[in-house]
Amino acid sequence: MKIGTIGTGFIVSNFINASRSNENCEVVACYSRKAETGEAFAAKNGVSKVYTDLDEMFSNDAIDTIYVASPNSVHFEQSKRALLAGKNVICEKPFTSTTAELKELIELAKEKHLYLFEAIIPIHLPNFKWLKTQLDRVGELKIVQCNFSQYSSKYDAFKAGKNPNVFNPQFSGGALMDINMYNIHFVMGLFGKPEEVHYFANKEEGIDTSGVVILKYPHFIATCVGCKDSKSKNLAQIQGNKGYFLVDQEPSRVVEVVSNFGSNFSGLATTYGVQENSNGMHYELKDFVEIVENNDYETCLKLLDYSLEVMEVIEACRKDAGIVFAADNK
User: In terms of Cα–Cα distance, which of 303, 288, 293 is closest to 106?
Assistant: First the structure.
């Protein structure tokens, strides 16, 4: 897998590091709108080739995969252009701004038989995969709680009247798209699509700076708290009548899983954790490389079906809270 990247943020640096810890993949080029920015990024991250023209990068036959980590609002356009150019695509979360955009990308990928992946960490983590096999141990499931709260470095600027992308509806920003999405992926990756969705958001200037998503399943309720305007203890907890599982850190990383079972929940807590690489992107990229190497298009399609269900839930959340993006009017 020979990869060209779009974007120069820290997430791209993490992706490049993840590529170096995986066999059979390499970042060979990066794109930036400004040559100076791109060259500085390439020098810092050890990338040999810099492009300031996307079409030029897409026309390079030595590149077979494009990693898209640009502002949310241009994920669709850049991913579509890459697919039309015959490249496989790994797109950062959120996959697209709307369900309609994602459906178009999926149909295009199928038409061209290209691999299209959403770069979402939790569902690819070994600890998460183990947890998914252990859920029946809690007995009758009652409540799932997730909280991922991180005070944004851009929130003060937003409060001062500036317009950073992450809090701008024109760029498909907000707490739901940026941070609460990890909670939703954690829940849906384990339990599938809920039967009912609600989003209670703290809104400023038409965008959600924090909020609570309620996901109603037939026999239990999940709450997903995501905040970019305040801090909290981050965690995920799965509660049943026979015990509980606790992820005592961000649901996006699932560093380890604590479990407690027994009569009256008096059993000794045990901890499970097998993730040797602290960069969670290592594991998603490992899965993607294996899928492509094995020509396992069926698994790629299953992941796309899952991503589409998540996008449908996120769009339902936005509509419930009255959050409108520029992309909604296309």
Answer: 303
Residue 94: burial class (beta carbons within 10 Å; 0-12, 13-18, 19+): buried
Tokens at residue 289, please?
Answer: 């490389």
Residue 329: name the closest of 173, 172, 180, 168 by CA. 172
Segments in 59-180 forming alpha helices (H): 75-84, 99-112, 126-132, 155-159, 175
Residues 202-237 have pLDDT tens digits of 999 999 999 999 999 999 999 999 999 999 999 999
Residue 306 is inside which H or E element, if any?
helix 297-321
Is the full-model pTM beyond 0.85? Answer: yes
- Domains of the chain: residue spans and CATH: 2-116 (3.40.50.720), 123-282+311-329 (3.30.360.10)
Other beta carbons less than 10 A from residue 77's beta carbon: 15
Q: How far apart are CA 158 and CA 167, in angstroms?
A: 7
CA dihedral for 328, 78, 166, 311, sign (positive or negative): positive
Q: Report how far apart the first and last C-alpha atoms of the chain are (Å, whole number).
A: 34
Question: Are the CB atoms for 276 and 176 separated by under 8 Å?
Answer: no
pLDDT along the chain (330 residues), means of 10: 97 98 97 97 97 98 97 97 98 98 98 98 98 95 98 97 95 98 98 98 97 98 98 97 94 95 70 95 98 98 98 98 95
